[in-house]
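Troubleshooting: if your tokenizer reports a length mismatch, compare your output against this known-good record of 332 residues.
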Amino acid sequence: MERERVRWGVLATGGIAASFTANLLDMPDAEIVAVASRSDASAKAFAERFGIPRAYGDWSSLAEDEDVDVVYVATPHSAHRAAAGLCLEAGRAVLCEKAFTLNSGEAEELVTLARSRGLFLMEAMWMYCHPLIRRLKALVDDGAVGDVRTVQADFGLAGPFPPAHRLRDPAQGGGALLDLGVYPVSFAHLILGEPSEVTARAALSDEGVDLRTGMLLSWESGAHALLDCSIDAGTPVTASITGSQGRIDIPHGFFYPDRFVLHRDGREPQEFTAEPGDGPRDSLRHEAGEVMHRVRAGDTESPLVPLAGSLAVMRTLDSVRERIGVRYPSEG
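Known-good structure output:
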């Protein structure tokens, strides 16, 4: 039986929007009906590139398009509150890129708005939708490594990024933490939940954003997570989970893994691999599939990427920024 098509609008035209759109085009139950940008030229160029029928040079026209079932918000995170809020106010379901917003206050506003309207809202944490990450989570929950003691994860890019780049721009929520650090923080939350204590140190740029940040998250169980992110030093981009009875190692690209290895005391290492075709960007396809499944079912959120979890991650990111002294202009 053919599934009902879900009609998408794409808000923004940058690199992640292009990657997501390319994945949607390969999905028979997805239809992209419109794209919006703050620039007519950018919207039209994107529409021509991907064969999208309607291009809008403003966000409101997309939000008010009755043919759109769900909007994918792919702006810089400094604009997520405004863009996603506009779409929710107009009655559209929303998939909003990570970091969910600039801070937990903005995230709370979006969640409250979506719930008051009975609308679907999800943070685009594609890592959580990856089949191999879901398998890893199930193994940990089933006690494969015993009681979790430590989590390690890092994500750093060598750059260098010039001062004019969005990653160095405080007005766009620049810095390593919200763009890259959200992955290791979200990974730690997936395994252990929200921490009870946050410690962090960072090196800041002349513009006042974090070039690199190290974090120590602690839980009342005694578990802790050592996390790192950087926009001026390339890191291995690995992760590991160590428990009382074993360890799981994820090699390079932990948030879109092609394999992980389970080490258990007294046993040979066991390797788990991704299905053929599950490449780095295929997590976007799994993410889109989860959204469409939920929208068709009339659900207002996803159990894979629950809104309570996104709010908890934003609270942790707020705590890290408070400790490293990063505040964005819009926050006063």
